[in-house]
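Example (one chain per record):
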Amino acid sequence: MEASFLASTEANDSVFVINIPRVKFGIGSAKEIAHEASRLGMKSVLMVVGKKIAETKLYEETRSSLENGGLEVHVSTDVRVEPEDAELIRAYQAIKGMRLDGFIALGGGSTIDTAKILNLLYTYPRDIMDYVNRPIGRGLSPPGPLKPMIAVPTTAGTGSENTNVTIFDIHSMRVKTGISNQHMRPTVAVVDPLTTLSLPPMVTASSGLDVLNHAIESFTSHPYTAREKPHSPDERPVYSGATPISDIFARQAIMWVHRYLRRAVADPLDIEARYYMMLGASIAGIGFGHAGVHVPHAMAYPIAGMVREWHPEDYDFGYPISPHGISTAIPASYTFRYLAPSSHERFGEVAEILGIGHREMGSKELSDALFEYYVHLLEDLGIPTKLGDLGFRSSDVPGLVDGTLAQQRLLSLSPKRVGRRDLERLFGEMV
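Predicted structure:
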C-alpha cells in the first residue's frame, strides 16, 4: 500500500487534502468554550443541545459562562438521535429568523451533525436535497464558508467534531445518507473526556464501536492515488481513500479501542479509559474525515433507516432505533471477513494490532480471526451479532441491498469492488 501512495500519472489523483478544525483536547477543556467563542468574535449564538444534555450541569455551566462573557445565547433542543430530514427542516424553520453569528453544538454525533446542517441552511438557504450527496441528492457545495461553529462532543464515537461530513435519514426513502463538503467542518473542536462520564453502557459501547469501524475502514480503504484525477481541484471529494496521515491515526485509534473500550463500558468512571476512548474517537475522526469509510458504513445506513421494532437498552426515545455504532459493527464482522483476502497486508496489520494474528497468516485463517474477534467483542459488550436480533428478516435483504448500493460514495472506497451479489450474500449471512 505504501508504494502505491507514490503513484503519479496523468490519469490518477496524486493529491489529498486534510481539513481539520482547531482542536482543544484535555480534561477540563469544556470550561474554555466561552473563551473560544469570544476568540471567534461570536456575539449572538445558537446553542444546539439534545434534550437530555440540556438537563445537565454541563449545559447550565456552559450557557452561564457564555452569557457571563456577554454573548446572547439562543437554544435549540430540536435534536433527534439519528437525525431525520423532516425534523432538521423544522428545526431550521424555527431558527431562520434569528440574528446569529455563530453556532455551538453540545452533545453526541447527532447533535453536532444537526448543528452543521442548521449552520449550512441558515447561512445558505436552499432545499436540503440540493446539498445531499449524489446520487440521492444533487451534491451541491455552498458558495463559501459557513458561520463559525464550536463542536463539543459528549460521546466518544462519531468524530463529527473533526469532519466535513454530516449524516442523517431521508425518511421517505428509509435510507441514511449525508452531506459532505469542505465547508461543513466545525471551526473549533473542544474535546473533554469528562463530558462522557455520564454515558450509559450501551451508548458507550455503540459509540466506541463506531471509532473502531472508522479506524479499520479508513485504514483498509483503497489508497487515495487509486482515484481518477478530478477535472478541477474543487471537484476533489472529501473522502479520498487511505493516506499516510490517516494510517497513523487509524493504527493508534484501533489500539486504544482494543485496549480501553471494554473498560469504559464496565466502569463509567474509569478516567483513563474515558480519556483514551475520547482521544481515539477524535483522531479517528481526523483520519477517516479525509480518507473515508467503506462497506460496513454503507451497509449501516439502510440498516438504521429500515429498523422497525428494536428498542435497545439505554436508548429510550419512544421510537425504534439502531444506533450508528451497532449498525456499522454487525456488518463489519461479516464484511471484514469477506474483504480480508483482497487486502491481506492491511487486514493482517489490523490483526497484529488487535493481537489476534499476523500478516503471514493464510487468507482463511486471517478472515476467521477477524470475524471471531468482532463477534466476541459484540458478545462481551452485550450487543447483537445478527440483524435478525434487530427484527430484520430475509424479506428485508433486497431493500437493504438497494439502500447500500445508493451509497456509492462509500462503496467506491472499498479495497474490493462490491456489487449486488456480494451484498446479497453478506446481508443473507446477517439476518
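Caption: The radius of gyration is 20 Å.
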